[in-house]
Design a protein that fits this description.
alpha+beta; 3-stranded antiparallel beta sheet; 7-stranded antiparallel beta sheet
Amino acid sequence: MNRNGIFIFLLIFTTCLSCEENVLPKPKALLRLEYSRPTTANAETEDFKFQYNQSARFKKRNSRSLMVEYPEMKAAVFISYKKVEDNLEQLITDAERLSYEHAAKSDDIRARVYENAEDKVYGTFFEVVGDAASQAQFYVTDSTEHFVTGSLYFAVKPNYDSIYPAAVYLQNDIGRIMETLRWK
């Protein structure tokens, strides 16, 4: 073999070796979670009634406590009722304190005031942003007799990025509970 032959052989040989395909890691994929459009069902207690998402399970725990459970999302909204007995200011303070206890683990807490003067339902919805134990809290009252608090909890380790789509869906359900709540 002459010099040109050796050169061509080495050129082809190194070209073949350099044609190896580089393996690149696949980018992380995002889940596409789709939830059905909610249909409502009626829930009733001794003191109030409301509408909730029919895909959830409504459970009375006792006469003052109930739960709206979402088994597919591993989540539940816990709702408690208390009578107002010259303690409205303390009940509101306790509800707000419970909401802001999540501030240590959250990035932000957004409070939205709710008012339905016609049906005497007044309250506040707290959206908790970040890796907190609860992604939403709320309270409603008629300011004279009734006081209801609620909290959304997931039965998984809080990872806001992962539970965000479910949290938004359930926050809308909580909004529906607040909007349809009526006192007896």
